[in-house]
Amino acid sequence: MSEVTEVIETAAEAVEEKAEAAEASAKEVVTEAEAAVKEQAEEVKEAVTEKAEEAQESMADYAAELEASLSKGEPTSDPVWARFEELLNSREPIKVTIDSAVKGGVVAFVDGVRAFIPASKLANGYVENLEEYKGKEVEAMVITAEEAGKKLVLSVRDVLRKKSAEAKAARAAILAECVEGAVMEGTVDSLMDYGAFIKLDNGASGLLHVSQISYKRVEKPADVLNKGDRITVKIIGVKDGKISLSKKALEEAPARRERAPRERKEGEDRPRRDRREREEVFNYKETGKASTSVGDLLKGLKLD
After folding, report:
1. Mean pLDDT score, 43-69
2. pLDDT, tens digit, 9 for 90 and up, residues 253-277
3. Going by C-beta distance under 8 Å and a sequence separation of 6 or more, which residues neighbour residue 241?
């Protein structure tokens, strides 16, 4: 029994020694692994920091280069074509002189660059004889500007249409002010036997019929008015673009003898004399050229 016991105790001691050795080995492995992980973490951290610093330096350099580039303006190989590009975007008209007629249009030179104006872009309507435009100064708009192909195309028609649209808008604004009952200032523009044309301060023109000058009898407008006189008038009618004015409407009516009121016919809304004067205002029969149409009278109006 003693021998068996001794063998068992020896085996137990051996197992215990191996266990302790294994435990020590395991602790050593863990310690080495932790050290390796920590070292790798430090390396990764250093690498990330280095990359971040490089990125910041790159961004700073890029920002400095961009700011310097913008301060010099957009890069262009030719400042003349840069100006054409600006004119293309702004649609600002420029004055050019027609140099010659070619097939399909005419040629002009802008800052030394050959520009082509197609016949279809030379006027609002059809142009039959291009030669008639040689030497003429016109206002044109850049509609194509290609530096690479040295292609510069202009349009006169676009300028004419733009001005026409602006004129229509201006006339509409003027007409909106010319409402019946409005009192306005103006200047005597011309004198006729049947009345005086008044240029109103808002740019429109109207007719002051001889019957609307005064309650006193006036034979001819020239007897009481002169060209250039300043005058205050009242708009008493707007019909078919014609503006009828009255100075008499702003004066105090003279006292009249009382008389029995005339019985009006059914549907009659004003005294016959008043109606007759109103008809004369819009239907004057004069052989001379006369019109109070806002459209006609504003044809020569210069708009800013």
Report:
1. 56
2. 887 765 655 665 665 555 555 554 5
3. 175, 292, 293, 294, 295
Distance CA 207, CA 198 (A): 6
Phi-psi region of 24 (alpha: psi -120 to 50; beta: other; left: phi over 0): alpha
Domain 178-253+272-287 has what CATH class?
mainly beta
Structure confidence at residue 252 as a pLDDT band (50, 70, 90) = confident
Distances (CA, A) of 60 to 11, 53, 56, 63, 65: 73, 11, 6, 5, 9
CATH number of 79-161: 2.40.50.140
**In contact, 153 and 93? CB cutoff 8 Å:** no
The domain limits of the chain are 1-55, 79-161, 178-253+272-287
pTM (two decimals): 0.49
